[in-house]
Every structure is written in C-alpha cells, then in structure tokens.
Design goal:
By secondary structure, the chain is of the alpha/beta class. It has 10 helices and 9 strands. It has a 9-stranded mixed β-sheet with strand order 1-9-8-7-6-4-5-3-2, sandwiched between helices.
C-alpha cells in the first residue's frame, strides 16, 4: 500500500509560507554544513554541535522523563522513557550516513518517539565509519538488540531508524532471520538508505540537500572493501520474505524516494506486510527535522497508529516474539 500524506484541505497562505521557508531553510543548512566531500570528522563535530540536547535541558522541560545507561562490552546504549508506563520497547538506530550521529544528538528525537508511541526507546552508540566500516555498525546493532531483549520486559519490541539507521534496521532484521533469532514485532523506517550501490538514488527528485555524489562518497566510507550490493550492506537487494510488518516513510521530493518505493514493492511481492507513506513535497527525514509542519504531525500520527496496531495484533495473538 502506497499512501501520500496530504492535508484535509488547502493550507492557508501563512501555513504555505511557513512550509516553504522551513523546507528551504533546511536545505540551506544541510547543504552548507554537510557537503559530499566535507571530511567525516568535521561533519561529525557539526552534527553534534547542531543536534545535541543535554539530558538536563530535557529534564527541565519534562521532569518526569527517565534516562538510563546500558552497556554491552564496549557498546553503550542510552534509553529514555517519556511516559509513566511504557507499553512497548523500541530500539532506535540513528541516522548520519554511517559517519555521524549519536544518542546525544538524537536525544530529543528519541524523547519524541517515546512520548508519541508510549515506549521506552533505546539508542545505541554504534561504531561509525570510516574508522569502523561494515560490518561494525551491524554487529553493534545486533548486540544492542540482544541486550534490549534480555532486559525482561514482555512488552512488544520494535526496531526503528532513519536514513542510514533505517537501512541498518532493515539489515538487522535480515540478519536476525538468517540467524534464526526472534524478529521485532514491527519496524518503522524513515527515509531509509537501503541501497549503497551505484544504482542508489535513481529517478526524478527535487532534493534540496542530498545528491548522487553524497551517496557515492558516503557509501565508500561504510562499505570499505566489501561489495556494496551485499545484502547486509544494501538490504534493498536482500530476500525480504519473512520479515515483520514494515512502515516506510519517504519525502516525495527526496533523493531516496524511488528507492523507498522499490523497497516496499519488493517486500510486498515477497509476502511481507509493508506500507509506504510518501510525504507530499517533503524532504529527507522531514518528520524528524521539521516536526512543526502539519505534514510531520500527520506522519507522527501514522507512526503511532502503526505501532499501536502491531501491538494490538500481538496481544490478540497472545504473546511476544
């Protein structure tokens, strides 16, 4: 099922102007700070400076929030619970092209996800490229998933991620199936980067930031000497049968939109329950980067409904994975 997220009516002039300005401001900032050939270390510093929110600042606004720290060997995982009682658990794999991003720079987003979905959200600080190319991030994602499953909760378990983290979440599910280990009860993939080969990003788009040069350059950092069409690197080429329900979101104008369409079509053809929500006129990761837009609020509503519906189906069937 492919759906476009649209409003219930024409936006007011003020809403349309706010939308136009927000999208172009987003494009101007990202295209300036994160160019294709900006050194990874510099991008990483900028990403952290631009996105990091301290726990203290969140607790001043939301004193009931609960943060915790977990470890698996050298891997650290931060969890946040924004609701009194979490009815589900989400492992969130952050974006950042496999070269940037951290629990600190995704703290506000994890908080929003926890609140919206009534969940405790776990964000692992997985190893980044180019210092740690494939399979480092996938190994850490697998270790984090196993850790979260041992924490004793009987609540439904989900995996989610955006951009590179969305692709990593899909790779994780493929790997779990290969290993014969229990899968999540569902997955939410926002603007997932699932194809790191030269064929990525094909098709018409009006992306205000990402280009084929971005994808090609950043893919080399993560792929290293491996084959970019390897299923666990580019899970869009994997066998997608036997996976849990997938909710895939993509911006209509972003570079990865066509890849998202193909991914959902392939998943559905393999028998996996997959649905695509296409944000009309939206850009990469829009529910996270532009949460004040009406399109983002509707996207968050769809995410909440998906998680609740998957949880309901699980309860009706009488258990967890």
């Amino acid at each position: 099922m492919h759906r476009a997220l649209r409003g219930t009516g024409e936006p007011t002039a003020a809403e349309a102007l706010r939308r136009w300005l927000s999208l172009r401001a987003y494009g101007a900032v990202t295209s300036t700070l994160f160019r294709a050939k900006t050194p990874p270390e510099k991008m990483r510093r900028r990403f952290e400076a631009f996105g990091t929110t301290s726990r203290a600042s969140i607790l001043r606004r939301h004193p009931a929030a609960i943060f915790a720290d977990h470890t698996v060997g050298r891997l650290t995982i931060e969890s946040v619970r924004a609701v009194a009682t979490a009815s589900r658990t989400i492992l969130y794999l952050h974006g950042g092209a496999f070269v940037m991003g951290s629990p600190a720079s995704y703290r506000s987003r994890a908080m929003r996800l926890s609140y919206r979905c009534g969940a405790e959200v776990f964000v692992p600080d997985y190893r980044l490229a180019p210092e740690h190319p494939f399979p480092a991030a996938l190994e850490d994602a697998l270790a984090a998933w196993r850790k979260v499953r041992t924490l004793g909760s009987r609540a439904p378990l989900f995996v989610a991620g955006d951009s590179a983290g969305g692709g990593l979440a899909l790779s994780l599910m493929v790997r779990l199936r290969q290993l014969g280990e229990p899968s999540p009860n569902g997955a939410v993939l926002l603007s997932p980067w699932t194809n790191l080969s030269d064929s990525a990003g094909a098709g018409h788009h009006r992306d205000l930031w990402l280009s084929r040069e971005h994808l090609s350059c950043w893919a080399r950092y993560y792929v290293g000497r491996a084959d970019p069409s390897e299923a666990l690197i580019s899970p869009s080429f994997a066998d997608l049968s036997g996976l849990p329900p997938l909710l895939v979101l993509a911006g209509e104008d972003e570079l990865l939109a066509e890849d998202a369409r193909r991914l959902v079509d392939r998943a559905r053809a393999s028998g996996t329950d997959a649905r695509l929500l296409m944000g009309k006129g939206m850009q990469h990761d829009w529910p996270l980067t532009l949460p004040w837009l009406a399109e983002s609020r509707r996207a968050w509503g769809e995410i909440t409904n998906f998680v609740e519906n998957c949880s309901f189906e699980l309860t009706r069937e009488g258990g967890t994975s």
